[in-house]
Amino acid sequence: MPTNFIEELTWRGMIHDIMPGTEEALMKKASSGYIGFDPTADSLHIGSLVQIMTLVHFQRSGHKPIALVGGATGMVGDPSGKSQERNLLDEETLRHNVQCVKAQLEKFLDFEGENAAEMVNNFDWFQNMSFLEFIRDVGKHISVNYMMAKDSVKSRLETGMSFTEFSYQLVQGYDFYYLNQHKNCIVQLGGSDQWGNIVTGTELIRRKGGGEAYAVTTPLIKKADGTKFGKTEGGNVWLDPTKTSPYQFYQYWLNAADEDAGNFIRIFTLKTRAEIEALEKEHSEAPHLRTLQKALAEDITTRVHGKEALDAAIAASNILFGKSTSDDLRKLSEKDFFQIFDGVPRAGISRAEITNGLGIVDALSAKTGFLASNSEARRELKANAISVNKEKVEEAFILTPENLINNRYILIGKGKKNNYILFIEE
After folding, report:
1. Residue 83 pLDDT
2. What angle do helix axes 291-305 and 246-254 make, rounded to 10 degrees?
């Protein structure tokens, strides 16, 4: 017997609209439900996490989640929430993107077991369907008046909308109808901007198939300061570690405002209500410790990137705030190293120089110009102000290949705030 999926989403603040009868239908028996994912990039970004977590809760409630990757609809372009028509992608690019998205979804959903998740691609049922077949078998069931009443269409009437985009809601509606007929799918889930498209699907199922189908949408995530969720100065926060490093990913969640962290930890983690309320109590007693943000960042970074990547991200954060060791530095990838020390003065030396041994006084002045003179370098060393890879050194210290991070870099520090980077010129 399934548990109450709608109740779970409700206390987590994840319900925006729901069609009457949905909760009752899902409590009667285990059912299938689906969410569509946009394959116009070779990675999902954290804006998709709301929908991914919705499917995770759906599966945990005893239902079968279906993740639809829009290989066909990606060629058309959804007008919902868009001010202009999107560029359409070719079949080869879409196929590559679909494979990448599937790999990311597999980190969240269980594709084995009694209510195993399933991945479908709507290109499979659209590729052999002719235009005439579509307008005869699908188009006749939905009136133009019905389609024109949708917000996603009305908002674009003044600026113009192609027939391709206008037909999108019919294409998505047919996806729901197809899954209803072939996969016993009775509910479509999605963001609140998808309500019109989803309801078109329930209407098509009722008129063409004579069945009942339901709809649930989640709120669009808004941040307390009014800035867009999932965006930084550098652009989207992606799930792909080559687009957004685990360190950057971890920092995004760690830097959440207190108000947002309480919201995010309900939506993006599987922690229970009791666990979250305990964290909130602990956080309120000592806000400066950022208990909520740390719990959120650790949970979601581990889920997306794994425990090893989380440890490296925490090490990088410790380095950034001065609470670090040489071991922390050595955990960093080259990309993370330079993100943390962006803008730090740097100088190149040859591998032969470091192999032969380079005195710390020369490394600070004569070879690099980091400090004005050898006498200044000796003065700082006598004051115990110089460190190599976060460890204090004395005037007699010699830099060797053992000091290289990733076999190429050395971090020299002066006091708490000044850093310099030596790197091997290849």
Report:
1. 42
2. 150
| β-pair type (346-349, 418-424) | parallel
CATH 3.10.290.10 segments of the chain: 346-424
C-beta atoms surrounding 315 within 10 Å: 20
Determine if the pTM surpasses 0.70.
yes
d(C-alpha 375, C-alpha 381), whole Å: 10
Q: Is 180 exposed, middle or buried (0-12, 13-18, 19+ CB in 10 A)?
A: buried
Taking residues 167-192, report their average pLDDT.
91
CA distance 36 to 38: 7
Average pLDDT over residues 207-224: 90
How far apart CA 365 and CA 121 sit, in angstroms, is 61
Q: Which has more pLDDT, 426 or 87? A: 426
One-letter amino acid at 85 equals E
Tokens of 232: 């930084």
Token pair of 358 as six digits? 């380079």
Predicted local distance difference test score (pLDDT) of residue 236:
87
| pLDDT mean over 37-61 | 93
Rounded to whole angstroms, how far apart are CA atoms 238 and 231? Answer: 9
Topology of domain 5-218 in CATH is Rossmann fold (3.40.50)
Query: DSSP 3-state assignment of 351?
Result: helix
Distance from C-alpha of 404 to C-alpha of 68, rounded to nearest angstrom: 47
| Cβ–Cβ under 8 Å, residues 172 and 36 | yes
CATH 1.10.240.10, the chain: domain bounds = 231-336
Handedness of CA 247, 248, 252, 255 (dihedral sign): positive
Q: In terms of DSSP bridges, do strands 235-236 and 231-232 run parallel, antiparallel, or are they unpaired?
A: antiparallel
pLDDT category of residue 86 using cuts at 50, 70 and 90: very low
Nearest to 393 by CA among 420, 419, 413, 423: 413
| CATH architecture of residue range(s) 231-336 | Orthogonal Bundle (1.10)
Number of residues that this document lists for the chain:
426
What are the Cα distances from residue 339, in Å, to 167, 238, 316, 418?
A: 44, 16, 10, 16
Q: pLDDT at position 140, please?
A: 74
DSSP output for 76-96:
T---TT-SSPPPPPPHHHHHH
Answer for the pair 21, 236: CB distance below 8 angstroms, yes or no. Answer: no
Homologous superfamily of domain range 346-424: RNA-binding S4 domain (3.10.290.10)
Q: Which residue has the tokens 């850093």?
A: 419
Scan for tokens 């040489």, then name that residue. 326
Q: Can you say how many angstroms the Cα of residue 49 is from the centroid of all Cα atoms in its chain?
A: 6
